[in-house]
Amino acid sequence: MPRNPVLSASRIRTTALDIIDRDGLDGLSMRKLAAELGVRAASLYGHVSTKDDLLHEVAGEILEKVDVSGFAEGDWRHGLTMCARSYRAALAQHPNIVPFLAYGPAHRDASLRRLDVVHGALVSAGWTRREATMIAASLMYLVFGAALSSFSSGFSEDQALYRDRYPNLDKAHLLPSVARELDHDSFELALGAFVAGLAARAPVPPAPTGSAG
């Protein structure tokens, strides 16, 4: 058997993500990663050039779970809804890396491929290129806003903090106990309103080529 552990790109990404999940984004360093892999830090550079490159690779793997297949059915509303739900679910599994992902697609192939699908489907449905860009950006604001914080968990369970000073928030102390359910339902409410609002101002889809006038 080899004296040193066998390194692979997949094993490096998995271990790096484990560290991020456990210690946060700032908790990842190439030295700590090497130690957890049982190798010298110099050994990592044969597989990844920099920590930033590694983060992009980890991010790309997470984003493979974002589902844009709904756009293939020709219904941009369904496509947006599927994309948003799967995106939020993917981020919810690894919340510590969300701030890195929130910077935008940059040069991440996984992000750009999915954005290309979304943009193309929206333009094909009759939206202008500018509108398609704005819709995609708005969807990201919604998804990342939901992933970066929990509204319900931010309240104290101490009823006395709200009861006397904020009479309309006298039940706010109950929110942390139902945070997961309420955050999910709040996201669904916002997503539904977003898609319905777009549908109300949607352009008329272009007529199929060769159709009768």
UniProtKB/TrEMBL annotation:
- Give the molecular function GO annotations: DNA-binding transcription factor activity; transcription cis-regulatory region binding
Pfam families recorded for this chain?
Answer: TetR_C_1, TetR_N
Question: Which one GO biological process term can you cite for this protein?
Answer: negative regulation of DNA-templated transcription
- Superkingdom classification of source: Bacteria
Which ranges carry the HTH tetR-type domain?
6-66
Keywords, A to Z?
A: DNA-binding, Repressor, Transcription, Transcription regulation
SUPFAM superfamilies to which the protein is assigned, alphabetical: Homeodomain-like, Tetracyclin repressor-like, C-terminal domain
InterPro entries documented for this protein = Homeodomain-like_sf, HTH-type_TetR-like_transc_reg, HTH_TetR, Repressor_TetR_C, Tet_transcr_reg_TetR, Tet_transcr_reg_TetR-rel_C_sf
DNA-binding region in chain numbering: 29-48
Protein name (database record):
AcrR family transcriptional regulator
